[in-house]
Amino acid sequence: MQTIVAVDKFWGIGKNNDLLFHLPEDLKYFKEKTLGKVIVMGGNTLLSLPDSKPLPNRTNIVLSDVFTRDDCTVVATLPELFEELKKYNPEDIFIVGGAMFYRTMLPYCDKAYVTKVDADGGARLFFENLDSLPDWELESQSEPVISNGHTIRFTVYRNNNPLKY
Ligand SMILES: NC(=O)c1ccc[n+]([C@@H]2O[C@H](COP(=O)([O-])OP(=O)(O)OC[C@H]3O[C@@H](n4cnc5c(N)ncnc54)[C@H](OP(=O)(O)O)[C@@H]3O)[C@@H](O)[C@H]2O)c1
After folding, report:
1. From atom 27 of ligand 1, which residue's Cα is the shortest distance away?
2. Cβ distance 1 to 93 under 8 Å?
3. Going by CA atoms, what residue is nearest to atom 22 of ligand 1?
């Protein structure tokens, strides 16, 4: 399974249950990667989406033990989540946030698509600094792209020692 995230220059990802930046080019990249695939998120991230609704044209799976919904799959515990994920090809599964859920799932991911924004977004929530984790290695980095006045780069990291689930 993989993860996809946009980080600022301090690996910040969010504040006030929202993203740090509006980046149309990154939203387009996220869509290209995840359309038709399985996206998996924590409860706060579902609530942070437009109208608190699952994203269209993707299988949405949410980990939450406080709500039930009929517009997406909700699982209440991690063991339940791992059972659910066995139904899908690991290559089709994307962990899409947020901070708490990324932290829980990162060791099981073999790839991370990290959009790096060259700015300080004043984040309150952070992703792990993959450059400081021994199992993770930078595989590729795009040329810089300007999005909404920010310089961004699309990078890919590989986990050389992913946990099995
Ligand atoms: N920059 C990016 O790419 C990006 C992507 C996604 C999200 N975000 C940002 O991240 C922030 C939300 O992150 P967050 O940390 O507040 O919330 P989160 O990770 O989206 O959701 C946390 C919730 O997930 C459920 N959960 C249950 N068991 C869990 C477990 N073992 N591990 C993790 N979660 C578990 C709990 O929900 P219940 O309390 O309902 O049981 C918990 O409160 C927002 O600011 C959002 O905009 C940024």
Report:
1. 64
2. yes
3. 42
And the tokens for 14? 């969010």
Q: How far apart are the first and last CA of the chain?
A: 10
**What's the full length of the chain, in residues?**
165
Output Rg (C-alpha) for the chain, integer angstroms.
15
Query: Does the domain at residues 2-159 carry the CATH identifier 1.10.3720.10?
Result: no
pLDDT tens-digit profile of 24-80? 999 999 999 999 999 999 999 999 999 999 999 999 999 999 989 999 999 999 999
Task: Enumerate the domain spans of the chain.
Answer: 2-159
Helical H segments across 7-130, by residue range: 24-34, 43-48, 78-85, 99-105
Is residue 94 a contact partner of residue 3, using CB atoms and an 8 Å limit? yes
CA-to-CA separations, 165 to 32, 81, 117, in angstroms, rounded: 26, 10, 31
Burial class (CB in 10 A: 0-12, 13-18, 19+), 81: buried
Q: What is the pTM of this model?
A: 0.98
Ligand 1 binding pocket (C-beta < 6 A) is: 5-6, 13-14, 17-19, 41-45, 48, 63-66, 78, 96-101, 104, 125
